[in-house]
Structures are given as structure tokens and as C-alpha cells.
Amino acid sequence: MPQSDTPQQHNSPQQTPLSGKGKRRWVWLIAVILIVAGLIVIRRIVASHAPDAKSARATPVVAVPARKEDVPVYLNGLGSVVPVNAVTVKSRVDGQLLEVRFAEGQDITKGSLLAVIDPRPFQVQLTQAEGQLLRDQELLRNAQLDLERYKTLWEQDSIPRQQLDTQQALMRQYEGAVKIDQGQIDSAKLNLTYCQITAPVSGRVGLRLVDPGNMVHASDAGGLVMITQDRPITVVFPLPEDSLPKVLARMRTREPVAVEAWDREMKQKLAMGTLLTVDNQIDPATGTVKFKATFPNNGNELFPNQFVNAKLLVETKREAVIIPAAAVQRGPQGAFVFLLNTTDKTVAMRPVKPGVTQGDDITIDDGLSPGDRVVVEGAERLRDGGKVEPKEPAKAGEGRPGTAK
Is pLDDT above 80 for 130? Predict the structure, then answer.
């Protein structure tokens, strides 16, 4: 009996600890297997739904087609309206202002009577000069008669030569006095003419600066009124000196160079005119040269000293490809646009060569064809080959000032 119990006592303590360690190892192994299996299942589910996820992440964009049009190329400059003539009407004589014959803001013609100055002092001067002339003319006539007598007596050797010469000198003095008197008469008549103040040019009168009853003088700085000739009228505007060769080449064709006048905000075109001339020198301080354009201004669209934006037409690009300027993006490789593929609703980056910008539009010299749809809104979130959701623009082709039509 003791021998049979000994093996049972040795086997029992060895089986109990080995059994606990094995269970823990199996638990960890099963857990790892379940985790790996779960990850595989999740990955397969995500992969099976990948197209739907991409569809959900499609970027909404607005795309418009490129179009082909004739595009006018302008040079823009901020200028001011300058009247052809601006005259400050002043009195040329001293006297009392009796009448004002114009209404403020009235359109007048050259030679119209504007004001009247008291002429009586100059009429008195005219009368005095005429009396002095009559007196000196009679003295001259008497001197001429005496000279004829002295010539006869000198030929008869009855008087010395000196007496004859003295009489000749006296006659010339009287001739000079007569000329002086005639000049005084002409001066008095001229002053009487200046008492009638007339318009030196046609145009529009401004506000009256002197009221009737006041004394006016030829030395007054302010004058009576300002007249501006505003039909036609001119606009003077500067352009960069680099633009000068293009404009001069256009002027050499002898064809009128069109100039447009726009308001300060570039929203309304005020008038159409033509280029008149170019200044004869470049301003070294600003690097610009001044241009002058003339406008008919029949409807008083332009006003003297008004600030306007002048647009000078230098050329017209025929059948140019045009897109909104917002569609052009800039990157390390240069300018590009996102081209919409309507078949699979994806976009592709397309390098382009931009041309001139006019308002909100830009011409494309290379890289696009008419009809290609380019993204104008939402491009900042796009990448090459990305999915998009095209939307119609709110107002396609409207509200873009400066667009060539």
C-alpha cells in the first residue's frame, strides 16, 4: 500500500500549475485572432463602400464655358476734365459797374454783352481830346502857310536860311502834336469800347463775382465772372511711358484713336471721344506721359475739373478665347485652370497662357478652346483628378463690368 500511494502524490502537484498557464496563453491567442479578424472585416467593408465615400466627398463647384469674342485692349489712366478755354473776364478800365447782362450758368456765344461800366468819364476825355486835336490842327495849318511864305522869301534872298529851318521844325512839332491828340482820341474811344464788356469766347458762365454798383478796376485779381468752353471739352490723363510706343504706332495710322471716359468707380461710361495729342515730354518723377483726348460733350456729360477714368483703345484682339479671371490659378509651374470633365464629373489641371485682363474677364492665348468648361468657384479645394459636383452659376455672364460684348 505505501508503494502504490507514492506515484499519486508526485503526479498531482505538477499538473495543477501547468494547467493555469496554458489557459491564459489560449485566451490571449484567441483575443489576438479576433482582433485581426475584426480589422480585416472592417477593411473589407470600407473598401467595398469606397465609391460611395468618394461620391459623398465630391466638391461643389461652378464651371462656365470658355467663349470666343473680339476683345478690345485698353490702357487705363486716371485723368481730369479740362475745358478747351477757361477765361476770367476782367474789366480793362476803372469805373462803376452799372449793369450785368448775363445769368449765372448761362450758355453764351462769343461777343455777347456781359456787363456795362459807367462810360461818362471816358466820354469827357474823348471830348477834351477832340478839342485839343482841333486846336493843334489849326496851329499846324498856320505853320504850313508860314513855311510856304518863308520858302518864297528865302528864294528871293530876303530871309536867312536859319529862319526857314526854324519854321520847318515848328511845323513838324505841330504835326507831332496832332498825332498825339489823335492817339488820345483813339484811347478815349477804346476806353468807351471797354465799358461794354463782351464775352471773349463761347461757353458757360459761372457765378457772378461782382454785383452792380461796385467799383471795378483793371488791377482786380478776381474779375467779374469765369467762362469755360465745354463744347467740346478735353480730358488729360497720364499713362506709363512703356505704353507710349503702342499709342504712337496707332496714331501713325492716321485713324482716330478711341478714348472712353468712365466714372471714378469704373461702373458707368460717361462719354466717347478721340485722342487729340500727346505731351512732348515724359515726367521723370512719375515715369508717365500725358495724353489729351477731346469729347463732343453735347449733353454736358463731363464737367470741368471732374476726375474720370480714361480708357484708350490701342488694339482689338480678334476671336480671342475668354474666361472669367477668377478661373485662372497660379502655382509653382505657372498659371493653370481646372478643366471640368462632364462625363465622370472630375477635374483636370490644365496649364494656360493668360493674355490681357479686361474687367472681370481674361484672354487665354494658349491652353483652352472655346466651349471648354473651367471652374470659377470652389477651385481652392480641388486637386487634379478630384471628384466634383457641378452647379449652375447664380447669374452666368452678368454683373461683370468691363466685359467685352
Answer: yes
* Coarse DSSP helix, strand, coil percentages of the chain, rounded to the nearest 5 percent: 35, 35, 30
Asked if the model's pLDDT at residue 397 lies above 60, the reply is no
Instruction: Judge whether 293 lies within some domain.
Output: yes
CATH number of the domain that 213 lies in? Answer: 2.40.50.100
CATH number at residue 359: 2.40.420.20
- The burial class, CB within 10 Å (0-12 / 13-18 / 19+), for 153 is middle
Annotate 63-124 with DSSP letters as a single string: EEE-EEEEEEEEEEEEEEEEEEEEEEE--SS-EEEEEE---TT-EE-TT-EEEEE--HHHHH
Domain interval for residue 100: 91-117+196-223
Query: 317 versus 115: which is more confidently predicted?
Result: 115
Q: Which of 279, 297, 317 is the last residue of a domain?
A: 317
- Reported as half-sphere exposure (CB side, CA atoms, 13 A), residue 25 has a value of 5
> What is residue 287's DSSP assignment?
T
pTM of the model: 0.66
Asked, for residue 16, whether it belongs to a domain, the answer is: no
Q: Which of 132-146, 195-209, 320-334 has the lowest mean pLDDT?
A: 320-334
Q: Are 371 and 277 found together in one domain?
A: no
Overall size of the chain counted in residues: 405
Query: Distance (Å, rounded) from C-alpha 128 to C-alpha 342?
Result: 101
Whole-angstrom Cα distance, residue 288 to residue 94? 46
Number of domain units in the chain: 4
